[in-house]
């Protein structure tokens, strides 16, 4: 399982990371992005940066789907943005489980810690966002060939943007 850590100075840096993630996506992602972190850790901010950098973003108003459970964004690739916060302890609906199997849509799940058991897709990038005294930290773990390819691409984008990160081997880059 590949991993990558990025220290983020503020919300703007979190959105910038989302834009780098968008630039690292293929048109057929084939993996799910599972976000975990406390309230206010930057999950929706990260999604806002990612969605805002994709073709078709002008038609997407990114907001946390806490009450609707899912927002669909007409971007390329299409995004299905789920928020499981209100489902704590309940099984997710069939729509989410079906979406997790598609390759044409990037499924993003906030509060993914509530997605347990067979609901966790084999191809996935997990991102744990945590608040720090100054800023935030994002720790990514990729499982599966497509997810690992995305993480490799993201690392290259971060290097090109001169964003410091910690590589899977623990070396600072």
Mind explaining what this structure looks like?
A hairpin with a 4-residue loop joins strand 6 and strand 7 (136-143). The chain has 173 residues and is an alpha/beta fold. It has helices at 11-23, 43-52, 94-99, 145-160, and strands at 2-8, 32-36, 70-73, 78-83, 105-110, 124-131, 136-143, 165-166. Helix 1 crosses helix 2 (43-52). The longest helix is centred in the C-terminal third of the chain and has 16 residues, at 145-160. The protein contains four helices and eight strands, in the order E-H-E-H-E-E-H-E-E-E-H-E. Strands 3-4-5-2-6-7-1-8 form an eight-stranded mixed β-sheet, with helices on one face. The radius of gyration is 15 Å and the shape is globular. The model is unreliable at 169-173 (pLDDT under 50). It has a single domain, classed as 3-Layer(aba) Sandwich (Rossmann fold), CATH 3.40.50.300.
